[in-house]
Every structure is written in C-alpha cells, then in structure tokens.
Amino acid sequence: MKVVALVGSIRKDSYNRKLAEYVKNKYKEQMDVEILNLRDVPFYDQDIENDPPAPVKELRQKVAAADAVLWVTPEYNYSIPGVLKNVIDWLSRGDRVINGKPSFIMGASMGLLGTVRAQQHLRDILFSPGVNSPLLPGNEVYVGVVHEKMDENGNIKDEATVIFLESVIANFVKWFNQQAAAMAVK
Ligand code: FNR
After folding, report:
1. Would you say 8 and 83 are in contact if contact means Cβ atoms under 8 Å apart?
2. CA 20 to centroid of chain Cα atoms
3. How many CB atoms lie within 10 A of CB 126?
4. Among 11, 109, 148, residue to substitute to test ligand 1 (most atoms within 8 Å of Cβ)
5. What pLDDT band is residue 159 in, cutting at 50, 70 and 90?
6. Which residue, 26, 129, 130, is CA-closest to 70?
7. pLDDT tens digits for 4-59?
8. pTM of the full predicted structure?
9. How many angstroms separate the alpha carbon of residue 142 from the centre of ligand 1?
10. Pocket of ligand 1 (CB under 6 A)
C-alpha cells in the first residue's frame, strides 16, 4: 500500500515529522510511506488552480498516485496549521485528487491533549463535501507529552504508545483492504 504523509510542521526538529518518520520506518512491511515536502507549496490561488506552480502539480500527482493519506498534524491555536489547510485547499480543487482518498490522522504535542482540538477540525474538513476523504473509523492517535515519549532520534520510548500505534496501523491496513475489496465488487 502506497501512503503519502502530509505533515503540518515544516520546522527541522518537528515532533510531528519525527512521528511520520517513525511510522514510515517501523511499518515498512505493511506500507510504503512517502513524506511529502510541503515547504514550497505556495498559497492557494483560484486564478491558477488549473495550471498551478510545479510544487502543487507534484503534490497533486503524488496524492493521486497514493492509495491513502496519513495526516500528521501539530495543533496551532486550537486548530490545524495553515500549511495543512493550504494543502487541503489545493487538493480539493482542479482534478480533486483528495476526493474519496482514504485518510488517517495522527498528531503530537507537548501538552496533555496531544492535538485533540486540531484533529477535530481536521476531521470536519476532511468530511466536508468538497474534500470527501473517508477516515479510518474508531481510532484516534493523540500523542501528548511527546517530548517525554520520544528520544532525540525520533524513537518512541513509551511502550504504551508503541503498542497502541501497532494496533492502529493494523486496523488501518485492515480497513483499507476492506474498502478496496468493496470498491472492486462494485
Ligand atoms: C503552538 N502550540 C500549541 N500546542 C497546543 O497543544 N495547542 C495549541 O493550540 C498550540 N498553539 C500553537 C500555536 C503556534 C503558532 C505554535 C508555533 C505552537 C505548541 C505546539 O504544539 C508545539 O510547538 C509543537 O511542538 C509543534 O509541533 P512540531 O513542530 O514539533 O511538529
């Protein structure tokens, strides 16, 4: 299964990026995760949405070619960062490559709540009709107090988090395969 990871933080020491890298490296057998570079994606502009700059074309091509999207979001002021909202706006227009693409969400923060409010907003956006991205049901991944759970190399040292992520990835793969099988029957 080919998965693109869209990470809402572009800073070099981002915990969320490290979380995406952890998933990419740890679950190589189950899925091929590519973390996309979002730094060069310009602000959404309706005037050029059908012939956008190269970074947007590349973003759309990679999402179109992927089986699923992994969103890894920090929480900024109780919501998702502008980096992610901007990407969603581009993906929801033109050839609408996000439409129908299965998604799952994770997020990490140093606070106790682990991006719960940002993820609630992200779910609302993904379910909006213009985006329409089906979301892994029944699993929410909030990695709170991340600075105590992850070492400087991005390894998760908190055993409960490791075990929980294991179950979420297994659930996602199972759910994705069920969706794919249902699509094949139609
Ligand atoms: C934050 N942070 C934050 N944390 C939180 O739990 N709730 C919030 O509403 C906010 N708001 C917020 C706004 C802005 C502009 C910044 C820069 C930060 C703290 C945030 O969780 C922390 O910086 C994380 O480390 C950001 O994620 P990365 O960059 O480590 O992936």
Report:
1. yes
2. 8
3. 20
4. 109
5. very high
6. 26
7. 999 999 999 999 999 999 999 999 999 999 999 999 999 999 999 999 999 999 99
8. 0.97
9. 13
10. 9, 11, 14-16, 74-78, 109-111
Burial class (CB in 10 A: 0-12, 13-18, 19+), 47: exposed
Residues 6+ apart with CB under 8 A from 28: none
- Helix then strand then coil, in percent of the chain rounded to 5, is 45, 15, 40
Which tokens is 95 given? 């050839």
ipTM of the shown complex: 0.99
Amino acid identity for residue 91 in this structure: L
Instruction: Tell the residue nearest (CA) to atom 13 of ligand 1.
Output: 76
pLDDT of residue 62: 98
DSSP letter (8 states) at residue 50: T
Instruction: End-to-end CA distance of the chain: give it in Å, rounded.
Output: 20
Instruction: Give the Cα separation of 68 and 15 in Å (integer).
Output: 22
Q: Return the CATH fold of 2-185.
A: Rossmann fold (3.40.50)
Cα–Cα distance for residue pair 176/181, rounded to 1 Å: 9
Q: Which amino acid is at 62?
A: K
Sorted by where each begins, the domain ranges of the chain are 2-185
Half-sphere exposure of residue 132: CA atoms within 13 angstroms, side-chain side: 8
Closest-CA residue, ligand 1 atom 26, reads: 74
Q: Which atom of ligand 1 is nearest to the CA of 79?
A: 9
